[in-house]
Every structure is written in structure tokens, then in C-alpha cells.
Amino acid sequence: MSDENRHFKISKQKEYLYVISEKISIVHPVYTNDPLNLYLLIGSHSALLLDTGCGLNPLKPIVKGLIGERKLLVFNSHSHWDHILGNEEFGEIYIHENEADIVANPYDLSFLINSPSELIKYKEKNFLIPPAQVINTLKDGDTFDLGEIIVKIIHCPGHSPGSICLLTSTGELFTGDVAYYGDQFLPKKKKHRIVLETLSKLITICDVKDGFELYPSHRNYPCEKTLLTELYNGIMNIKNLWKSKKAYDFFESWEIFDGKFRYYIAR
Fold first, then answer.
1. Which end is more exposed in the chain, N or C (fewer Cβ atoms within 10 Å of the end residue's Cβ)?
2. Which range marks the domain in which residue 176 is found?
């Protein structure tokens, strides 16, 4: 078995959908949202990879082995480190226009210098990870035809200004870090309205056409619409738990736990 296949877990979810997972806790034990899920959609003439992961092991050979001669599109769900550090390997990526400037520049990982993990790949690059050479921008409503699978971009700000979800003609909703079961990283309290508006939009989409399967970028998949409603209700309730908050310095945030979700809220 190759090194990359020992690092990644590859699961065939459907004839046209693969999940490539890796543990982000190996980067630093403070990150508990294992696994990180990268999704590969394979149409009749093109394929789409959602996120490139932590950049610790080669990903492109795995993807090429699965898609054959099909054209490959590489999307970033947003610009946080665990979703983009493999961008350089692919050379060309797509990301929402609000975060294109971030991924166009080297990514500074100096906050991981004191990690107890070895992180040889990051050390070799001085904890400054090069970007992809070509950055293409996405906006809400853009569509891509992979051949028998149509993918629509939904702009979902909140977790980050340029977060996107992908809606497919085959009944999947890829939620990125907008919604998943696990530790939630939220903006400052005054911006929670934006997060709630995004979740409400996704709930409406699922209400209009029942039966969508949700594929988050962390932990369990697939999920049902109840993920969205549970997270919405949890964030609505943060104001009632505000006095229980604790400082969490590594993330420069407030920590609140409601029994189902742990929230890290930017200070």
C-alpha cells in the first residue's frame, strides 16, 4: 500500500461519489473534528474534487487513479487551512470570490510551530505553504456540468465570508464547514445572524425538495436535514448560554458547550 493510501481512507459512497478522508488531529490534537472529508464527484466527462485537505501527503495520484482521463475541477469550500493546503499540487482551483485573495498567497502555518506532531511536510516549507498557480472565482448560482451530474454553487457566508455549499442534480448537498456534527467555529456573536440566515436558506432548499443527503466536510456522512435544524436551534440558544462561556486561547475564542455542539466563538 502506498504512503498516500495509508494516510487517506478512500470510500466509494456511490457509483459517482468517493469520499477521501484524513485525520486532522495528527496536525495538532486540539483539532478534534476527525475525519476531514474530501469529496470526489465523477461525471461522464468531468470530475469535481471538493477541497484538497491538509497537504501532508500526495492527493493528486489518488484522484487521477479514480477519474481516469476525465477533466478535473478542484473547488475549495472555503479558505481555512485544512481545506486548501493541497492546492499547490493541483495547480488550478476554484473558490468563492470573497476568499480568492487568501488562497492566492502562501498560507502561514506558524501557529502550528509548537504542535506536538512531527509535521515534516510543513517544516520543509518553513510553515509557509505555496498556493495554486491559477485561482478561479465562484459566485452564488454558478453551475457546472460534469456529464449527467449538474453542480450548483450556493454562497453560504457565516463560518467564513466565502463559504460555499454544492447542490447536485443527483440529490446531494455538500455543506462544507457550514454544517456538520462536531466542534463549531463561529464568527463574533454580533455576526451570528449571518450564520443563521445561511442555515435557514439551506433548510428552505431541503424543504422545497425533500430527500437531499447532506455531506459535511467533517465527521459523519451522510446526514439528514435535522443536522441543519439542530445546528440552527443550537446557535439561536447561544445567547442563553453566554454566561457559561470560557476563554479558549489557542483559537482566540470563547468556548460554549450545549451538550450536542461545542462552539468556538471568535473574540
1. N
2. 3-183+210-224
* CATH code of the domain covering residue 70: 3.60.15.10
Asked if residues 184 and 261 have their Cβ atoms less than 8 Å apart, the reply is yes
**Residue 2 grid coordinates:** 502506498
Nearest to 216 by CA among 184, 255, 170, 258: 184
Among residues 197, 213, 109, the alpha carbon closest in space to that of 157 is found at 197
Angstrom CA distances, 93 to 20, 168, 172, 237, stand at: 18, 19, 21, 37
- Give domain status of residue 214, yes or no: yes
Residue 30 to residue 18: CA distance in whole angstroms:
27
CA distances from 258 to 175, 218, 261 (A): 22, 19, 6
For 216-259, the pLDDT digits (tens) are: 999 999 999 999 999 999 999 999 999 999 999 999 999 999 99
Is the Cα dihedral 115, 116, 119, 125 positive or negative? Answer: positive
pTM assigned to the model = 0.96
CA-nearest of 62, 122, 250 to 267 is 250
Query: How many domains does the chain fold into?
Result: 1
Distance CA 196, CA 193 (A): 5
Query: DSSP class of residue 218?
Result: B
Q: Is the separation of the CB atoms in 171 and 211 below 8 Å?
A: yes
pLDDT in tens, 67-107: 999 999 999 999 999 999 999 999 999 999 999 999 999 99
DSSP state of 48: E
> Do the domain assignments include residue 198?
no
Buried b (16+ CB within 10 A) or exposed e, 220-255: ebbbebebbbbbbebbeebeeeeeebeebeebebbe
